[in-house]
Design brief:
The complex is a heterodimer of chains A (about 750) and B (about 55).
Chain A (H helix, E strand, L loop, with lengths): L17 H8 L14 E2 L4 E9 L4 H12 L4 E7 L4 E7 L4 H11 L3 E4 L7 H33 L5 H22 L1 H12 L6 H20 L7 H36 L2 E5 L5 E5 L8 E4 L9 E5 L2 E4 L1 H4 L5 E3 L4 E2 L4 E2 L4 E5 L6 H18 L4 H26 L4 H14 L3 H20 L2 E3 L2 H7 L4 E4 L1 H5 E7 L2 H4 L1 H11 L5 H10 L9 E3 L3 E6 L2 E6 L1 H4 L10 E7 L5 E9 L3 H10 L3 E5 L4 H11 L3 E3 L4 H13 L4 E4 L6 H6 L2 E5 L4 H6 L2 E3 L6 H35 L5 H20 L5
Parallel strand pairs in A: 16-23, 16-25, 23-24, 25-26, 26-27
Antiparallel strand pairs in A: 1-2, 2-4, 2-5, 3-4, 6-7, 6-8, 8-14, 9-12, 9-14, 10-11, 10-13, 15-27, 17-22, 18-19, 19-20, 20-21, 21-22
Helix pairs in contact in A: 4-5, 4-8, 5-7, 5-8, 6-7, 7-8, 7-12, 8-13, 8-26, 11-12, 12-25, 13-25, 13-26, 14-25, 17-18, 25-26
Chain B lengths: L1 H26 L6 H7 L14
Classes of the chains: A alpha+beta (about 750), B mainly alpha (about 55).
Chain lengths: ~750, ~55
């Protein structure tokens, strides 16, 4: 079994990550009713809620959470699932007690978000369970039939009647087992045939069914050989692969959902009578009126109906600096309101031109992506006709050579059984399970097996800037020249504002107090009166300075009274490991480019800091898409790495795509891989693992072909008996699985 | 060979019992948190997980 459980072995027990804290900041003021929509009331009067826990890493955290919650009054069950990081709590009493549970978790250092139980991937879970049951049935049947088979092969002096009894017994075990455990394959094969296509499951089903039919015939006539053992063994081995594959897919899906749930926010809904209630953003309907407080993330797309404010729009267009918004403007979920409170009217996605345009482009991109044919399916398409014509030729050949009808049929069926793509069916999934499991442990979520195949072909990597290679946060760069006093004075004003420039000044000066005479003049700057002097912090025009012409960096000015204005210079800070990651990728020979919706200057600065030679600034979503299309038209295989709404079409259309976990919903949905944590280095791991995996897949397919080249001639000329079939098939399956497992050792 | 008449049914019954037990473990959700259950046994809890106070 492949171990894919441990996400993090070094447990920073109970410490929320910086990201979690930042995320919780916006909706920290717990409203008593905010969890009520997620609480379910059971028939026995228990209130139940499922919470997603962040910051828990090990069994110690699990025990701590369960122990601490048990100290709360009226708690009946507190049970954490360490595999899904979900905590199930049941208590007696009011629904609103949920908020005290979350507060308790907060106190002991864990973040908690309610989990919408309707989002549970029930279908996937049930399928996993039925695969597990099918696997058990096939396994038990296989083991029992093997015991009987050993008797038959070893019992040289066994009488014919006893042998026939053994075969009948095998049949009684095998037939119900095949009927039950073979269903996943039969169904999939039937679906493919109905659509006039073939897949791997067609030859698998055919081989299993023919092996059973032939064995029944042979048993009935009292002949010495049956294939019941081969049929059940085949199913057992393939079901192991299928089960692991499904389990990993479910796990990745759950993790992606977890990310989404962690980011889901609450909204302040203005009811008809003017009262405010807190509701989960997922329950907002079009035309609902919402109040967005200063500093809040916009929960849903909407139109401003009251108020003016500055808004951080980097998630939509990649611009680092916020822009002023007023009545009638559209704002999108994920943007951050930096200035004054706003009242917005929620809109449906389709009613808005920008988002619907983006969604249309994303859809088109995904369609071109779905044309990608998986390597296993390509193999199946070549394999099926060859094998089936070989079987037909064997039949005709034996008849032509004067064999009886029975011999010809037997040998033709033997060809179909021995060529059953057991090894081929395991060759690709085994590698993908191991590779995805390895990436999962390193915090890289890969959404599908074919993403891994596409990733292996990449030769060009396109980065978005804001939020991808940078954190979308400004940093003051001339603090040394300014001196401590000036900085502290500016910070006294800046600490009172959420504008990114003000935040950068506040960050540079550290902790301190805010002046109480602060005035925020929207779109211009901050003004305060300290020690009788008017102090202004803001744009060049606002303080009365002449904008610097020597360079085009992001700047702000401080003026104390009538003294000479002082210039503060900022830059967009790259992620900590961005430079290292980019150097590594360049070392591997990938072509790198920076493509940003931000201004030329900001883009140039970042490109320079990261050592990227190719960059373009001021690019619209359509331009990004066009750039990728032209790369693809020139025979290149681009990987798009981006996080914003404006990157989504490019993400969907690129050969492969990646998003950081903090990306906009639409981008995360469009991306093939999600990089967890504030790190880019997962990209290097993902690309290398994909390359390794591709190598193993090709090796495995070659092994499968080699096996067939030896086994098929034996079958054609009638040398195959059930023992050879069983040995050859299990041997080749083991071989490809072991080869796949080599990947896990890196 | 008479032994087969009772040995074989016994063997098959044992298999069936094992399979039934396995089905039961799947149904009762014992494979849903393998990691947590493995760890849980190591923590000695001095209180019951479910409070049966009624």
């Amino acid at each position: 079994m492949v171990e894919i459980n441990n996400i993090d072995l070094n447990c920073p027990s109970g410490q929320s990550t910086a990201q979690d804290i930042a995320r919780n900041e916006a909706n920290h003021d717990h409203d008593e009713t905010q969890f009520s929509p997620y609480v379910q009331t059971k028939a026995n009067g228990d209130q139940v809620i499922d919470l997603m826990i962040s910051g828990a890493h090990c069994s110690g955290c699990m025990a701590k959470i369960e122990r601490e919650l048990a100290t709360l009054p009226d708690i009946r069950i507190a049970r954490m699932n360490l595999s899904t990081m979900r905590l199930n709590v049941a208590w007696r009493g009011e629904q609103t007690n949920a908020s005290s549970i979350v507060a308790k978790l907060d106190d002991i250092g864990f973040g908690a978000k309610p989990f919408d139980m309707q989002m549970e991937p029930l279908h996937g879970k049930n399928e996993l369970k039925s695969l597990l049951r099918a696997m058990a049935v096939a396994g038990v049947a296989m083991a029992n039939i093997m015991v009987i088979s050993v008797c038959v092969w070893a019992g040289i002096d066994m009488g014919e009647n006893t042998r026939q009894l053994m075969h009948i017994l095998s049949g009684f075990i095998a037939l119900p087992a095949v009927a039950y455990a073979g269903q996943p394959f039969f169904r999939s094969a039937w679906r493919a045939l109905k659509n006039k296509q073939t897949n791997m499951d067609v030859p698998i089903s055919l081989a299993v069914l023919l092996a059973c039919a032939l064995s029944i015939y042979e048993t009935y006539h009292g002949n010495p050989d049956t294939y019941f053992d081969a049929a059940t063994m085949l199913l057992f081995l393939l079901l192991i692969g299928r089960y692991l594959d499904q389990r990993l897919r479910l796990k990745t899906g759950e993790s992606a959902q977890r990310l989404a749930a962690m980011q889901a926010s609450n909204a302040s809904l203005v009811t008809k009578d003017g009262a405010l209630t807190t509701v989960p953003a997922s329950m907002i309907k079009p035309d609902d009126i919402l109040l967005i407080a200063a500093g809040e993330r916009i929960p849903v797309d909407g139109e401003i109906i009251k108020g003016r404010s500055t808004i951080d729009t980097s998630i939509a267009n990649g611009e680092t600096l916020p822009a002023p918004f007023g009545v009638g403007d559209m704002i999108y979920s994920g943007m951050i309101n930096l200035g004054n409170p706003l009242t917005i009217k929620a809109t449906a996605v389709s009613s808005d031109s920008f988002l619907s345009e983006i969604s249309k482009l994303v859809e088109a991109g995904e369609q071109t992506k779905s044309k990608f044919v998986r390597i296993a399916d390509r193999a199946a398409r070549a394999y099926v006709p060859i094998v089936h014509s070989l079987a037909v030729m064997t039949f005709i050949g034996w008849l032509a050579a004067g064999g009886s009808l029975r011999t010809a049929t037997l040998n033709a069926i033997a060809v179909l059984i021995i060529t059953c793509p057991c090894a081929l069916g395991l060759a690709v999934p085994a590698v993908q399970i191991v590779a995805s499991g390895r990436l999962f442990r390193k915090g890289v979520l890969i959404k599908s097996g074919d993403a891994l195949e596409r990733l292996a072909k990449i030769d060009t990597i396109i980065f978005d800037k804001t939020g991808t290679v940078t954190l979308g946060r400004l940093a003051l760069i001339n603090a040394d020249i300014l001196g401590k006093d000036i900085l502290e004075l500016a910070a006294k004003l800046a600490r009172g504002s959420r504008h990114p420039i003000a935040r950068a000044i506040a960050d540079a000066s550290g902790q301190g107090n805010v002046t109480d005479t602060l005035e925020d003049i929207m779109g211009e700057g901050l003004r305060a009166k300290i020690d009788g002097k008017i102090i202004k912090l803001g744009s060049a025009d606002f303080v009365g300075a002449k904008a610097s012409s020597e360079d085009t960096q992001v700047e702000t000015w401080l003026r104390v009274g009538r003294a000479k204005p002082i210039r503060f210079v900022f830059k967009d800070v790259p992620r900590l490991d961005a430079r290292e990651t980019i150097e590594k990728l360049q070392g591997f020979g990938y072509q790198l480019e920076l493509l940003s919706g931000d201004t030329e200057n900001m883009t140039a600065q970042t490109a320079d800091a990261l050592g990227l030679k190719n960059w373009t600034g001021g690019v619209s979503p359509q331009d990004k898409l066009a750039h990728l299309e032209s790369l693809k038209a020139n025979g290149r295989f681009p990987l798009m790495v981006g996080d914003g709404i404006n990157d989504a079409p490019a993400l969907a259309s690129a050969t492969a795509s990646a998003s950081p976990a903090s990306a906009a919903d639409i981008s995360r949905a469009a991306a093939d891989i999600i990089l967890q944590g504030d790190k880019l280095s997962g990209l290097v791991t993902a690309l290398r693992t994909a390359k390794d995996a591709q190598k193993r897949v090709i090796e495995n397919l070659s092994l499968a072909v080699l096996y067939n080249m030896i086994a098929v001639p034996l079958a054609i000329f009638g040398f195959v008996n059930p023992m050879i079939a069983a040995l050859a098939m299990s041997g080749s399956s083991m071989l490809v699985t072991l080869n796949a497992l080599r990947l896990a050792r890196h | 060979m008479i032994a087969l008449l009772w040995l074989v049914p016994i063997a098959l019954c044992l298999g069936a019992v094992g399979l039934t037990l396995f089905f039961w473990t799947v149904k009762s959700g014992q494979y849903e948190d393998i990691k947590g259950d493995a760890a849980r046994i190591l923590h000695s809890e001095d209180h019951p997980i479910v409070h049966d106070d009624d």
